[in-house]
Design a protein that fits this description.
Nucleoside Triphosphate Pyrophosphohydrolase, four-stranded mixed beta sheet, alpha+beta, homodimer, 23% helix
């Protein structure tokens, strides 16, 4: 089974060390310590598609301790970055090259850097905050509030109608997507609802279908900027669609042959599938495999 | 199967209406509109344990549109609330009385109110922000950033060793808990990791056990202040424990009879189980039922 994109990092986060300033200082002073090489928020890769690492900078840029890798402490620089959370063309190319485990290490660093760049002030009292816990939180000197990086859960799901050879799943597209790109429907989990409830709410709102049983398939982090993608399948009894025109431009029920064709990028496939590092791709694969 | 606590609200969030200020004004002007009755962040219940609702206030307190219930628009007041996110004794008593569907409606309101109370300033630029989208976001007049309520995913999991009648699951306790209370282990999902990876990381950090397959069981919102609890079971091959003394005071492997005894509060049960509205309770029930 192909692992979900952005999973499988070889990094040991060693998060128990984050609260120990002496340990943090020792990690920073370690001659083996390395800094993740970035261009803004985009990765600078080695020729083999792995992440680039450099010696630590001499200037006192605040650094976040990503964890230990191959016996060496690994850091990311927390500084001014462009506010773009969208994927650049260079990044798209890099993601196609990077082994998933490297992309996973990159994802953690990118989300963390981006969060610091956009959360320099205390939301509770407006004071300037400072990085604490080896770069994994920020603390307010005025009101004492501590702020932690956001991880926003998103459900991404296939409605499934029928069983066995008659089974079909629902894919939809947004007007802004590339021509003929379709994917699983998705939406943020809100406060006060479960994953199962968010799946049912989004399927009904976007496509007018009523979810029965909801089953979990897989999850992945999505670092644009910091979602947790939770992939599910929901059985539906009635396949009639009522699309929310603000969200979904069109939607299709697709059978196993159609999904297999889309994943294989076959001529005559009913749609263009999302890239392998997107969990919608994993969700299609797992559905074909019986999930 | 008992539903997970804080799920099953009868409220229709009607979230497609949130972006329409004219619709919001009409909902506020509806004579049937009602305000959730609270004492600080605690619910004021009717005699039958259901939530109390009052006519809308005459003063211009900012209100959040919770959704539609029994044909009437429902609101929560966004105002100064005590910063306590802990459960009061009064709340504990209320939670024991409330039907789960009522507790679910309350959970959404509580998390939303609490988030507004602690996020009045722009984390990006420090300006005073204002509620938008019918109370489901805040907008910064200076830098234009939009801020959405936090939903922080937490994994809560049972390590499972052995199969069939020999199966046992791992429960642990924190030093601050009531005497003999044990529960599933838990921890926040971090940026750049999947649910499955967070389960494995937390089990290894807290108990020194290595997770094999991870299976999802159920989820719930937890409104103290706004977690998404994701309950899983992870198989482990080696039952030897290495406890993180900072997190776990003691841990036990418990068989099916022990878990059943704890849920039934039997004399001689190996531990005191968490209350029914906690998903650890649901996780124990589902494990006994074969999950």
């Amino acid at each position: 089974m192909t692992p979900a994109g952005f999973t499988g990092s070889r990094l040991d986060r060693a998060d128990a060390w984050r609260g120990d300033p002496e340990r943090f200082a020792a990690l920073l002073a370690d001659p083996a310590a390395r800094l993740l090489r970035l261009d803004g928020l985009d990765p600078l890769l080695e020729a083999d598609g792995t992440l680039g690492w450099a010696p630590l900078p001499a200037d006192p840029t605040p650094l976040a301790f990503l964890g230990m890798l191959d016996g060496a402490p690994r850091f990311a620089a927390l500084g001014a970055v462009p506010p773009a959370t969208r994927r650049t063309r260079g990044l798209e190319a890099a993601l196609a090259l990077m082994p998933p485990a490297e992309a996973a290490t990159y994802a953690a660093a990118r989300s963390l850097i981006d969060w610091h760049a956009r959360h320099g002030f205390c939301a509770n009292c407006s004071a300037v905050t400072a990085a604490i816990r080896a770069g994994w939180a920020r603390s307010c000197p005025d009101c004492g509030a501590e702020h932690y990086p956001r991880t926003d859960p998103v459900v991404i799901m296939l409605a499934e109608h029928g069983t066995g050879d008659d089974a079909r799943v629902l894919v939809g597209r947004q007007a802004s997507w590339p021509p003929n790109r379709y994917s699983a429907l998705a939406g943020f989990v809100e406060v006060g609802e479960s994953i199962e409830e968010a799946v049912a709410r989004e399927l009904f709102e976007e496509a007018g279908v009523r979810a029965g049983d909801v089953r979990f398939v897989a999850s992945q982090p999505w670092p644009f900027p910091s979602q947790l993608m939770i992939a599910c399948i929901a059985t539906v009894d009635d396949a009639r669609l009522t699309l929310d025109a603000n969200e979904i431009e069109s939607a299709l029920w697709v059978d196993r042959a159609g999904i297999a064709g889309a994943l294989a990028e076959s001529e005559g496939a009913p749609f263009l599938a999302p890239p392998p590092y997107a969990i919608a791709h994993t969700l299609f694969e797992r559905w074909l495999a019986g999930a």
